[in-house]
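YM 10:42: OSJNBa0086O06.14 protein sequence, as discussed on the call
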Amino acid sequence: MPIFCGVCGFVGHVTKEHGDGVHPPEAIQYPDNLIAQDFRRGSWGFGGGRGRGSGRGRERNDCNNRVGSESGNPEEMEDEDMIDTASSPSKAIAKYTGGSSSAKRRLAIGELLGHETKTDQLLLMDKPHGRAEGDIIGEEERNDVDETRSLEEDPWLMIGDFNDAMWQIEHRSRVKHSERQMRDFREVLVECDLQDIGFQCVPWTYDNNQASPNNVKVRLDRAVASPVWRAMFDQANIMHLTTACSDHVPLLLEKGGNMQQRRRSKINCFEAVWERVKSFNSIEHESWDDGGLAKNLGDVRTKLAYTMENLKRWSRDKIGNIKKSIERCRRELEEMRMRGREDSEPDVHRLKIFLQELLHREEIWWKQRSRITWLKEGDRNTRYFHLKASWRARKNLIKKLRRSDDEMNGMLTKPFTDEEISDALFQIGPLKAPGPDGFPARFFQRNWGVLKRDVIEGVREFFETGEWKEGMNDTVIVMIPKTNAPVEMKDFRPVSLCNVIYKVVAKCLVNRLRPLLQEIISETQSAFVPGRMITDNALVAFECFHSIHKCTRESQDFCALKLDLSKAYDRVDWGFLDGALQKLGFGNIWRKWIMSCVTSVRYSVRLNGNMLEPFYPTRGLREGDPLNPYLFLFIADGLSNILQRRRDERQIQPLKVCRSAPGVSHLLFADDSLLFFKAEVIQATRIKEALDLYERCTGQLINPKECSLLFSALCPQERQDGIKAVLQVERTCFDDKCLGLPTPDGRMKAEQFQPIKERFEKRLTDWSERFLSLAGKEALIKSVAQALPTYTMGVFKMPERFCEEYEQLVRNFWWGHEKGEKKVHWIAWEKLTSPKLLGGLGFRDIRCFNQALLARQAWRLIESPDSLCARVLKAKYYPNGTITDTAFPSVSSPTWKGIVHGLELLKKGLIWRIGDGSKTKIWRNHWVAHGENLKILEKKTWNRVIYVRELIVTDTKTWNEPLIRHIIREEDADEILKIRIPQREEEDFPAWHYEKTGIFSVRSVYRLAWNLARKTSEQASSSSGGADGRKIWDNVWKANVQPKVRVFAWKLAQDRLATWENKKKRKIEMFGTCPICGQKEETGFHATVECTLAKALRASLREHWTLPDESLFSMTGPDWLLVLLDRLSSEKKAQLPARKHMEDIKGKGPMFQDPCQKEQTCQLNAEKEKWSCPPDGSAKLNVDAAYRTETGEASAGIIIRDCRG
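YM 10:58: structure's back
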């Protein structure tokens, strides 16, 4: 075991041998600039007495109890620099403050233990900790940890026993770990800007070595590092080694990045930054035209390769290395300024413009590699894109079916039009990872005018011959880790990167196939079928689970089997797929197209950036192929057919949630399967026979180790064991997740939704707010953070505690923290969730959104009453009525409780459109609208009229006006007589009142829920701003400026900037006087308009922009900024400092134009706003229309003018 000297930093001798000057050959020396800092002051896992369970056996070492100072001279060490590594050896932090690059390649920690230490591997192990389990981190401990960050930008690493887990998944025992304690631990790391660098091997570091059920395995030891350190050592990782004499495992820190690793081969890739150069279009067009005329896809491939080579050669000459260009440009600019040159001088000004362009190119370059789709460039988020791309690179390191008839085949194989092929191309994500040719869809979409003829001809040539030209169906496989510590092939998910031309062909086939799936695929399959949702099967499954849990008779005892298919897509048998298509009646031409796409593929694996030798597969479907999910439906339907036949032969008894409900024997979602059968051994045997047949036919393989069974409490243990033995199921409990949702077991509590919070918090560790603008945070919260719980909220009513805690996480991320302290929340959360037209940011209220999503489920039960989900729920909860007018039983499943919660909201906007009037009840249903309001009609006199059809004269299809005015109030009768009755026989149908189209939308129902929650009268339509909406806010949110400038203008308009006056109101500061001019209180208006510095800034800006007259910059009230912007013309708005032109940041906006060029631009813009004459010999048609809500009258105006006006 190596030993460590604390004086000279060598491994191989102890301190007492230091004077001998003997260093063994295998010695490792720490860099001289290593600083070890003491953490003994606090009690957070450091020093102090031993806590509970701290008397565990440890491996000992011969390390000296002191570590040298920065200079390495023991005489120069001060007392405060000492660290007692014998009592707390793992509490030292390795921190670099400079030095040579070779020193930075060696990672150093204040403690070394191990058996195979090398230059690039240091074996680390923790020592006894002081904080007992269950202790909560206090402020003193937080400060102790935070004090280690003397410089925010320094690279630093902390490693050792933190005596706590970060996530519930890291704590394996029968008792759940304290969420509060783990949250406090995570907050400390966030405040210190530290991130876990991950690990490999076993997922725990501590084992109490007790027998089950008292066994506890926890990941207590870890390594955390700052973003700068992670960027410096991006290949570093932690290995959990195995030891025989300790309850903790040793940690081996490997820096990775072997310098002798072979150099990565160059991979062709289209760069979006090329489009920033003016000559790109010409070189791209010339290269494509020089390739000759393309007659087939082989010619298209040749032209693509030729174009790529020319573009790469052109890029080296015109663009070069962007990073080096930025450094060189900055040096030149700095030299000019050091020589006293003014920024207004032409050459300095041009250099500044060029630097801005280079910075924008760098941001685009990193954005393309980060795969971030929710954030746009332009806000200087380059640092965030850089870290995200680096993280990606590190992470990625290595039942009866209806037969198709001739009409269907004719529709599938009719010639493809130009429009179909073009639509297929533009359905592909522009910057999705390209295939082997290196061209993403953006290249084809942007240059479609030039490439269209060749590509369409090549695609049509494939549909005529049904054969791929060599190389067009080549595919690159990249391995995406599915776990934090991938070791075996099963821990990776292979993703196929196909060429865009292949994707166009596949998309054409998919667009023809999708409309037919509803009729072809079994109703028990809910994946990838238009008109069906995954939540349909989830609702049915959870009702079945509820029925199993609530079973009261042993004779009606059922069980559920959750199947796990091993590498389902990779094991698809091509012969079975072709046979299935043939049996379903697909024609020979269609089958030839499909099988050519599947069987002509040639793979090349990309391993750590290098392309391996290509090979040909013999089975499987590509993940990443647009055809893949739809073809697998035919494979999965094989299981559905087998089970349905066993069910028809009464070999398997399906589960019924009630007597009149349809039987459910299986539910499918792609490769996820749930089977239900009576809890008997004989039934299990028949299920096993069916599964064996499915495996033999399709090539699929069921993994018994990952399968699980759900039994009722009445099922005897002996019978359970017998069923498990037949099915070879090894797991003792049912999965806690089903179809990606928490498996309900009684009342749904906040703890069952904890994984959603953990997913969000894990992403927060990657979303370092220092590298994001407020506009970037806004986009992230809306597109990612608030989307994480959407799937779960569409099934369950979320507990109030979960909603509050999740919103708190979002609030804290939005306002951020600095140096360990949370920033002030200047605006109430209720205001932030207001629509932008009402002065908010449009963040979602999670409670209202939850209810809106559940209302969608209730709407689907009304809209699709024949679906399996609707039939099961109707049989159980409203067998003799409709969902809108039935009193439901009190005993129900958690999912039904959620639907009822959404139904309450749905009823407030549901309106019935009259057909024959046979379904709509006059006094119970909403069917008459009073403007934006809905209300139940009141009787004018007592009567027995019930249905609307009794108010209609059947022969003439008109209203019975005398009867209506006799039994209904006058104002309601007037509205009824305005309703038009269809002249042909049609049934009544439901519609959504708050959409002009009558089509239900989650967005519209959310607006209604938000308005009802705040008791406002705003119109809930998604196409209007509403009664209280202020169009004046469009001056801010629709401005053609950077998104972060819009957010700043919004904060200014709300008077919520961190001014001294606002700080004084919050009691952060004692005085509110402006610290610059010292004349007035520093409000938002004063800081941006009145202050002498603001006036001087405007005076300087007038040299470049034509700003509004100074008299317009006046205080007109709290909305002074909105009033100012509303007074200005569009041109002047774009010239305000708060509304900087979007192109200015790119060096192309009005700020960088010559005065004469500005004048020409203004004239062109003015001309564009005028009506223009049509060409000679033609006419132009202009139309407009108006609608009066009070009377229901509408009118339209048309004017036709020729070329003379």
